[in-house]
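call fold(seq) -> C-alpha cells
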Amino acid sequence: MKRHPENNNLTLFFGESYEGFDVLHQYAPLIEEYLSRALYVARLALVTHPRTFAFRVDLRFPANQLIDDAQTNKPLERFFKSLRAKIEHNRLLREKKSGHAHGTAVSHIWCRETGDTSGVPHYHLAILLNRDAFFKLGKFKIGRKNLFNLMVEAWSSALKLPVEDVRGLVEIPKKNPTYSLTRDDWDAFNAFFKRVSYFCKAKTKHFGDGVHSFGTSRI
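ret:
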C-alpha cells in the first residue's frame, strides 16, 4: 500500500477492479477510501430502494459573477438542502394530485475539482433516487416541471442567483448519464460504479486548505 503524499490518511489504489467491480484504472492512482465510501453509498441506496434511478450531473460556478463562498463547499451544501426540499415538495404535490406518491431518499456521491488555471472549482455529482418516484431527468429546458429543473432551481438557490443566470451551469453529461439499478443486475451496478470511480482519482484533488474534495450522503 502507498499512502497519499499530501495526506497520510489516504491510500493510493492502482488496481483494475475494487471489490470485484471495475474502476477507471486509466486515471490511477485512485484513492481507496473514496472508492470504499462510494461503493457503500451505492449499495445502501439499493437496500433503501430496490429500484434505483442513478444519474450524473455537473455543477459549475458562473465565469462572470463572483460567488462569495465558491472557495468553500457551502454552495454545494445549500444545493443538496434545497434539492431535498424541492423533491419532498414535488412528492407532496403528486400525492395531492393522484392520492399517492412514492417517497425517496436522496443519496449522493460527489467530488470537487479545479482543473484549469482560473482557480474556479466545479463539482461532479452522482445522485441516486427511488425509481418509483423518479425515472428520468426530463427535457433539459429551463422552466419545465421535471427533475432537471428541480436541480437548476436548487443550484440557483444555492448560488443566490436568478434561475436565468444559472443557465448552462447545471450540466448533464452527454454520454450515458442515467442508470437503472436493481439488486440482481450486476452489469448495471458495475457500469455505474465504474463511472463514479472517476470521482476517486487522486489527480485534481487538493489537501491542506480545509475544503473537502470528495464526499457522500451520510452513511
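The first strand starts at residue 2 and ends at 4.
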